Amino acid sequence: LVEHYLRTDAVMKEMLFLLRTSENDIVERARRLVERVKELEKKLEKGLSENPEMKIKDELKDSVKGVTIILRNYDKAPVVFLRKVSDGLKSSIKRGIFYIASCDINGKTTIIFSCSKEIAASGFDCGSFISAFAKNHSGGGGGRKDMAQAGVPGVINTKEILKEIKASLEKILK
């Protein structure tokens, strides 16, 4: 009981320090910060959707056994934007796999790799796929069955990734 009290007291002191407030105002300060974060997130999403520079740089579409495959590359797009694009595709296409990527000014490519629920349920694992893919390209990554993220140095050839996705799908969707 004493240890619990000491841990709780230490957490409270750290929260007071981080929030720069008093014990009496901690809840209100936290509430205002949460509201501010939500407000800024909305502004960021609005700004990303209205940003004229977030145009598709390169796109390939294909299909294997009724599964739509979409690969899109953007130029210098933030990860938040890539995730939003991925989520939009996942909600609009019932049977699909989506590779959404962007290369930053330092030459690093960030990849969001996702699939629809139906494809994940059929055995396709985005986390395993992107982990192996990134490793083969001197990068790293991982995630869940339906969504994963990776980072690799340099620009990735979309035709190359399309071949790898199709080969993987052929094995799973026999």
Topology:
Layout: H1 2-19, H2 26-50, E1 56-64, E2 67-75, H3 79-92, E3 96-103, E4 108-115, H4 117-121, H5 126-136, E5 140-143, E6 147-153, H6 158-172
Parallel strand pairs: 2-3
Antiparallel strand pairs: 1-2, 3-4, 4-6, 5-6
Describe the structure.
- The longest helix is centred in the N-terminal third of the chain and has 25 residues, at 26-50.
- 51% of the residues lie in helices and 26% in strands.
- Strand 5 (140-143) and strand 6 form a beta hairpin.
- It is of the alpha+beta class and 174 residues long.
- The protein has helices at residues 2-19, 26-50, 79-92, 117-121, 126-136, 158-172, and strands spanning 56-64, 67-75, 96-103, 108-115, 140-143, 147-153.
- It has a six-stranded mixed β-sheet, sandwiched between helices.
- The mean pLDDT is 86.
- It contains six helices and six strands; from the N terminus they run H-H-E-E-H-E-E-H-H-E-E-H.
